[in-house]
Amino acid sequence: MAAGAPRIFVSHLAGIAVFDPTGDQVGRVRDLVVILRVGRKPPRLLGMVVELSTRRRVFLPMTRVTSIESGQVITTGVLNVRRFEQRPTERLVFGELLDRRVRLVDTGEEVTVLDLGAQQRSARREWEVDRVFVRKGRTGTFRRTRGESLTVEWSQVTGFSLEEHGQGAESLLATFEQLRAADLANVLHHLSAKRRAEVAAALDDDRLADVLEELPEDDQIEILGKLKEERAADVLEAMDPDDAADLLADLPEEDKERLLSLMQPADAAEMRRLMSYEEHTAGGLMTTEPIVMRPDSTVADALARVRNPDLSPALAAQVYVCRPPDETPTGKYLGAVHFQRLLRDPPYTLVSSLVDDDLQPLDPDATLPIIAGFFATYDMVAAPVVDETGSLLGAVTVDDVLDHMLPEDWRETEFHLDEEEREREKGAGAHGT
Description:
Blueprint: E1 7-9, E2 17-19, E3 25-35, E4 44-51, E5 57-61, E6 65-69, E7 72-75, E8 90-92, H1 93-97, E9 101-104, E10 110-120, E11 127-136, E12 149-153, E13 157-158, H2 169-175, H3 181-189, H4 193-202, H5 205-212, H6 217-225, H7 229-238, H8 241-249, H9 253-262, H10 265-275, H11 282-285, E14 292-293, H12 299-306, E15 318-322, E16 333-338, H13 339-344, H14 368-378, E17 382-386, E18 392-397, H15 398-405, H16 419-430
Parallel strand pairs: 2-7, 14-15
Antiparallel strand pairs: 1-10, 2-3, 3-4, 3-8, 4-5, 4-11, 6-7, 9-10, 9-13, 10-11, 11-12, 15-16, 17-18
């Protein structure tokens, strides 16, 4: 946890108002959703169940919460209005965890959970439930004993964590929680179809989106086909636009159109634009969400955008300076500023004075060999894609190029040395071989 990071006690959130960035109320908090983990690891706070004015209850991810203070929640303004459905690995804080009887690890004494404390993790909009406020003594309908109340670490109580010996998808997910998306995708690929569907159903949308991007095409289509259509659309929206467009393009026309109709209109329009390009061209490979800065933005503004933990290292390697509008396709493209250049100049410097306008951008119809040659010639990890009117359409990253140039079965390659090989490597080094 970061020093000084905000901590909230969940009971203070019950019923408080939720506002969008303009100050309009969108609903009220009715519950919070956590995902439990194996052993004594603190659970992740995934989001809030928000009741809209229509009485519909929807899910608000914590990644879309910008502020919790003064008895109100402020969001980014992006709210999915599909009805909330609890997943197998999820637990409702008010409905399932509060007032629960648990035990203190040190003494074995049974206590009642009165409240939970959550704190935001460093550098990311991720929250963990790390404190438990409990009361000693027994409570019941006919007898209530007032005992000592105390706050303890999550690891100091037992009674609602997952059991390590469980064989369900929940335990499997908890075991693989620390894996990178690519490694979890490799695990999923080798599971049975039934087991793969169970694990995919239990993953949250963002995690499943990351994993799908790393899976072979056949696995992607199989998993997507076993999800409810509304959820499949949510997962596609959470994927990188270029990967989602590639997956949609592989579906039968009827399925593709049905999923597009369930997506947010702006996301659906973005998918259609990407699918209009040939697959192995710059337009077909690009992401439509690079870092776009206006000419009057400063180095400090650009570095704040680069720090976004949701960006891949390749996308964070440079920013693109364009005239408004800032969303792709943008106004006139002026040039790129590399991350290293941003580090060398004062924070108040305008990015427009730093642009590298000597490097020719890629045409959306540029073929894969031309794109690969561009990266090899200029030692780049990302390149802008600009149309004939001078508007920035997106950016191609080196990982997308490699993905299409490697053999189809490259994901089957194991890139990790096992323990015996590591020892052999150490021994060879020690003997000077």
